[in-house]
């Protein structure tokens, strides 16, 4: 059955449409792959019965001629998405046992289009992390290993379960979310494709909130076209999210394979950071050459406030998180640890329910919002955010998209950066600017390093111009012809 | 700016997170490290810059002021740590 799990989403949908196999067959193959891959710790909840039930219903719909655009395709769902009747914990002890009585808009859209859910994917707790090590349920292990080594590597984070599951052929595609790089960095670390669409493209309703002005859902899959197919289903205006954009959803897959001739692609000089590994520098140059060969005009641009994006993010995101996570008080849902009075109950519940990184960020957020510091930190960060967004506006007067590396390194070993918060935060140096400005960003696998580990290139587009990213991403994918797969050891 | 153990104690209280005494010093060091790194924002001239409070330029939509949901206490209470006859049970607040 392994040939069914190694299909692209597009090929699987074609196979289902031509009745080469049924949804029950391809779902069963994936259920077995998930069971056999528990060493990766990619899934926190497996829902095989639900998956097979959904597959059966899909086959019946298809027999009646009512198949939707994703009908019968088995997917993984990041645990940040609330799924009706299925435990949704955001990888936190404070939500252990929480079974939503509602379905997030994004998953509801996928199920409306016929998708099958295999289970819930592991992640950093409340999406706060870049290595999956903050998960209360243990880290995900990257299916990739360095050549000749067997050290366990991080799949990146926070969408590490989504990335590992896609890379290891456990699902045809997965949902993920990106607040500072949580789709793109794991995509780069696992040789998969991930896109964070424009802020407001996907509804945040039913997605556990981390930093509401930055959080955005998006897909991860093995090809650019597959992410386009998934994003088309996930997107759309939703009155239940007041920041959801009331705009038409373009036919994203139609942009893949379109000529990129004549497009102007900017290369921001500030992304040439000190200490960047020569291999990443080389890959970036390779990407520039590929796009030139495809007919793009390459333009050097300047985004002068780039280096201030991460420090601004580490005020804004914790500030919003400290406010959002105030809801976990042990009263209406989730963990309650009884103290001798109400305050002690709150304090013990939150002390025992949250992990260290989440507590660290709540404390920073509370501090920067506290009386006397609001102007110096929070307001300052919001002004710097504006300058970062202005940098992009100016660049996009001259170019149609930007090309950068996705991450400053390949996947690193589990445990390597976990005692130095700032070293960990630097993983998002190339991705976080996009969240602050609300723009779409995509990571495409482009090559491997000397150890055989995947590396990604990032494309950044104008607001609501994901289409151009799909065209350029498709061009890079074609030129890179990235076919490496992790050797199966699990 | 460096923050000390007393500040951590105060902030932890505001955030309603119990932090044991022995964690206050290490936390003060960690948080000071992060805040010192953040200080570089002071290099940016932000005079006359409007703070950016939203990633998209949209006015928040209005909706009809009508009830659209509710009437399902079983659903609302289904994840509660403690309930009694369709109510959340919480610790005593007033003696």
UniProtKB/TrEMBL annotation, chain A:
InterPro entries, per this entry?
A: Amidase, Amidase_CS, Amidase_dom, AS_sf, GatA
The residue stretches assigned to a coiled coil in this entry are: none
GO biological process terms, alphabetically, are: translation
Please give the catalytic activity noted in the UniProt record: L-glutamyl-tRNA(Gln) + L-glutamine + ATP + H2O = L-glutaminyl-tRNA(Gln) + L-glutamate + ADP + phosphate + H(+)
Matching SUPFAM superfamilies: Amidase signature (AS) enzymes
Recorded hits in Pfam families, A to Z, give: Amidase
| GO molecular function terms listed in the Swiss-Prot or TrEMBL record | ATP binding; glutaminyl-tRNA synthase (glutamine-hydrolyzing) activity; transferase activity
Domain Amidase, residue spans: 25-469
Q: Which UniProt keywords apply?
A: ATP-binding, Ligase, Nucleotide-binding, Protein biosynthesis, Transferase
Question: Does the keyword rRNA-binding belong to this entry?
Answer: no
Q: What is its EC number?
A: 6.3.5.7
Tell me its family: Belongs to the amidase family. GatA subfamily.
Q: What is said about its interaction partners and assembly?
A: Heterotrimer of A, B and C subunits.
Give a short account of what the protein does: Allows the formation of correctly charged Gln-tRNA(Gln) through the transamidation of misacylated Glu-tRNA(Gln) in organisms which lack glutaminyl-tRNA synthetase. The reaction takes place in the presence of glutamine and ATP through an activated gamma-phospho-Glu-tRNA(Gln).
Name it: Glutamyl-tRNA(Gln) amidotransferase subunit A
Source species of the chain: Phenylobacterium deserti
Encoding gene (name): gatA
From TrEMBL, chain B:
Reactions this protein catalyses: L-glutamyl-tRNA(Gln) + L-glutamine + ATP + H2O = L-glutaminyl-tRNA(Gln) + L-glutamate + ADP + phosphate + H(+); L-aspartyl-tRNA(Asn) + L-glutamine + ATP + H2O = L-asparaginyl-tRNA(Asn) + L-glutamate + ADP + phosphate + 2 H(+)
One Gene Ontology MF term: transferase activity
KW Phosphoprotein (keyword) present: no
Which Pfam families does UniProt cross-reference here? GatC
Keywords, in A-Z order: ATP-binding, Ligase, Nucleotide-binding, Protein biosynthesis, Transferase
EC number, UniProt record: 6.3.5.-
Tell me, which GO biological process terms does this entry list?
glutaminyl-tRNAGln biosynthesis via transamidation; regulation of translational fidelity; translation
Question: Cell inner membrane: is it a keyword of this entry?
Answer: no
Q: Which HAMAP family match?
A: GatC
Function description: Allows the formation of correctly charged Asn-tRNA(Asn) or Gln-tRNA(Gln) through the transamidation of misacylated Asp-tRNA(Asn) or Glu-tRNA(Gln) in organisms which lack either or both of asparaginyl-tRNA or glutaminyl-tRNA synthetases. The reaction takes place in the presence of glutamine and ATP through an activated phospho-Asp-tRNA(Asn) or phospho-Glu-tRNA(Gln).
Q: Which NCBIfam families does the record match to this protein?
A: gatC (TIGR00135)
Q: How does it assemble?
A: Heterotrimer of A, B and C subunits.
Name the family the entry cites.
Answer: Belongs to the GatC family.
Q: What is this protein called?
A: Aspartyl/glutamyl-tRNA(Asn/Gln) amidotransferase subunit C
Gene that produces this protein: gatC
